[in-house]
Specification:
Layout lengths: L2 E5 L7 H10 L7 E5 L3 H17 L5 E5 L11 E4 L6 H11 L14 H25 L4 E4 L4 H11 L3 E4 L4 H11 L1 H4 L14 H17 E8 L2 E9 L7 H9 L7 H10 L2 E2 L3 H4 L13 H4 L7 H21 L4 H4 L6 H10 L3 E9 L12 E9 L2 E4 L7 H23 L2 H10 L6 H14 L10
Parallel strand pairs: 1-2, 1-4, 2-3, 4-5, 5-6
Antiparallel strand pairs: 7-8, 8-9, 10-11, 11-12
Length: 461
């Protein structure tokens, strides 16, 4: 049975759901799950949680606990990573605020823009150290990545190590939810009126999830592009195979104009439906930062609520402690949705020929016009021989141009950080759609490197 290492096991976004679905997998009965987190308090709680569920549900897994990946990797078959340099929300807020004195208002500052550069750069040394140790301790293991910026981190592992890498993200669910809302009347789906936005607001979570689940049962989406920047190529009835794209175009136009207005404009102008929703889409577009037009107001782009999610993380830990002490797990835990890691592991372990609709893997010719080493998000078939991306071919020229710009920005970012190369770092920022002034790019880079010096000593050696 496989040995599965979970790095960043206390991750707010992915740790709990990934752990629950691994424990519930009957296919993986007898597997060892090694939990790793550098925060001893988080590690203690998530270990107690895993042992509690393992016993209550008779999952028949072996649970071990580690404060360092170095004691956990030997003999691993799969390494699931949700590693983030902490404190996550505080650093993200700093990434957004850092450019404001320079007159640059980023739309979101997580995965694109100067914030995306800083976010990726902080994670490079930590993740590169992990995969170097994997080369020594478990060179045939798969590195399953949840950390953002997704395609930058996966490119790092692919380009600078011998480790096999795949990135997983649940953002395709936003596409399903939006399709479901548009086709709700035609397909008798419930809850469309309550699903108001894909924005990262807790009030949106349940309505969007419920709509996405209904839509997934009825429809099949084929999408391709980059993580958080994918495009719907096909939409079909999952039962009959009928092409629903023409119907969706008509019904989408009947939705309120206030629903995902940026997605609406991009769909109209580029001809294919962008999957991720307004808040992620906005990071990669070159017309979202104009200080006069203020497009973030025009398109109602809200910022991530850093204070709320910081507080909610602590509430999560308190709830877990309370639930562990209170008795048997509630049904809520039994119905936790998968983030994809368990399906990938099961498919490789059992040679299942599983079709998974969104994986992040090296391009290798899957999408024309993008570099071979670029990490693209495509559907793939998964079996014991690996993860086999579906050939996409050429996308419309305008969309390809947008993707090319983001790919070049991302590859230069990672290459610059690995090599401590300030020139490449500057080129990355100069290609970024947020930066519109060559002198400001120098100042932004200075601010990023100075504030992140403790994470990036290679720029100062």
């Amino acid at each position: 049975m496989p040995r599965i290492v979970c790095l960043g096991a206390g991750s707010y976004s992915f740790g709990q759901s990934t752990l629950i679905t691994l424990l519930r997998s009957q296919v993986l009965n007898g597997a060892e799950i090694a939990l790793v987190d550098t925060n001893p308090d988080s590690l203690s709680v998530i270990t107690d949680f895993a042992n509690w569920l393992n016993s209550a549900w008779n999952c028949r897994k072996t649970i071990t606990s580690h404060l360092s990946h170095k004691t956990a990797l030997k003999g691993a078959d799969f390494v699931i990573s949700a590693v983030e340099v902490q404190p996550r929300e505080q650093l993200w807020q700093e990434d957004f605020e850092r450019t404001l004195p320079l007159g640059i208002r980023q739309p979101y500052a997580e995965n694109g823009g100067p914030g995306g550069f800083a976010h990726a750069a902080r994670n490079v040394n930590a993740i590169l150290g992990i995969v170097r140790d994997m080369e020594a301790e478990c060179p045939e293991a798969w590195f399953i990545n949840f950390s953002n910026p997704m395609h930058r981190i996966c490119y790092l592992v692919h380009k600078y190590s011998r480790i096999k890498v795949v990135g997983l993200c649940h953002q395709l669910a936003a596409g399903y939810a939006m399709v479901g809302k548009a086709l709700a009347t035609r397909y008798s789906l419930s809850g469309a009126d309550g699903f108001l936005s894909t924005h990262a607001d807790p009030a949106n979570d349940k309505p969007m999830a419920q709509m996405a689940m209904q839509a997934f049962e009825r429809f099949s989406i084929k999408a391709a592009g980059l993580n958080h920047f994918t495009w719907m190529l096909e939409l079909r009835d999952r039962a009959t195979g009928e092409d629903l794209y023409p119907l969706f175009r008509r019904e989408w136009r009947l939705l309120p104009q206030s629903f995902e207005p940026l997605t609406r404009r991009v769909f109209d102008d580029f001809g294919l439906f962008p999957i991720p929703g307004d808040e992620h889409l906005c990071e990669y577009l070159p017309w979202m930062t104009d200080p006069v037009r203020k497009p973030w107001q025009v398109f109602d782009i809200s910022l991530y609520n850093w204070a709320y999610f910081t507080a909610n993380r602590e509430m999560m830990w308190q709830r877990l402690k309370h639930d562990i002490a209170s008795g048997d797990p509630s049904e809520e835990y039994a119905h936790t949705h998968s983030e994809g890691a368990v399906e990938i592991i099961e498919a490789i372990h059992t040679d299942a020929d599983l079709l998974w609709e969104a994986v992040n893997i090296p391009n290798a010719g899957l999408i024309e016009g993008l570099p071979e080493d670029a990490i693209v998000e495509v559907p793939a078939v998964i079996n014991k021989d690996g993860i086999h991306g579906q050939m996409v071919g050429a996308l419309p020229l305008g969309i390809t141009a947008l993707l090319q710009r983001e790919v070049a920005t991302s590859l230069l970012c990672v290459d610059s950080v690995v090599n401590g190369d300030r020139t490449l770092a500057l080129q990355s920022l100069l290609l970024d759609p947020t930066i519109t002034d060559i002198d400001l790019a120098e100042k932004v880079l200075d601010r990023i490197l100075t504030s992140s010096r403790r994470f990036l000593p290679q720029f100062f050696d």
